[in-house]
Amino acid sequence: MKAGSWFHLYRLLIKTSVRSRMQYKFNFILASVLAALIQISEFLMIAIVLYKFGAIQGWSLYEVGYLFAVMTLSKTVYRTFADEVHHLEKYLISGDFDQLLTRPIPVLLALMPQNFRIMLGEVLQGGFILCWSLAGMMRTGQVGWTAVPLTLMIILTGAVILFSIGLATATIGFWTTRIEELQNITEDAARTAAQYPLTLYPKWMSSVLLVVIPVGFVNYVPSLYILRDELGVWVLPAIAGVAALCLGGSLLFWRFGITKYQSTGS
User: Fold this and answer.
1) pTM of the full structure
2) Residue ranges per domain, the chain?
3) Backbone angles phi, psi at 77, to 5 degrees
4) How far is the C-alpha of 264 from the C-alpha of 266, rounded, in Å?
5) CA distance readout (Å), 199 to 52, 178, 226
């Protein structure tokens, strides 16, 4: 089957999942509002500290808001289209992964649209903070309008990097079955740490967030060029290359991991 046919099938699976979720519209709206409030309250705590002290390691409130928003939106794109990759453990424990193996489509394509959800709350929260941060920096002349398309680009490459990290972590479940504790490190903790400038951390930790778990390439590294005109324009194609390498490596690891899968027999 051609790639276009796979894409068409993926869209149909998403539509089916969305229809099932929209049967409970009130729950969807309430969950979206609560998600936005939780995310905004998290950023407000940072904003209060920055407002009092002015900056963190030379990074202004607008710049930290930019890092926070880019990471949030990149995560939102990833988790919107591939949330079940993050929840692979439940398929391995229950034996439902066996059902995906019997479908006449690639396993990953069958997994990704399962329980597809529109993360409206995160989009609103991340979009608001991003617009606020960019507007503040534009008023001071720190950035121009070119920052907008560049930011959209790095949100997409960031989503690819986060997806790759999530997929590689999930693949380890073919050997260990349980992966939640590992995800707390590779996805949750690493992503939370990268919401702030990496200069805040010891050199060994910032190296881990750039080399071992490359979340620093989602927002921090591109922000050095977009916000501060550092490193040079070459950093943008380099980040796209990092995203491509991460994606290719995680897909190869996933294919190898599937060969090691052992059914629960349930």
Assistant:
1) 0.83
2) 3-258
3) -60, -45
4) 5
5) 20, 33, 17
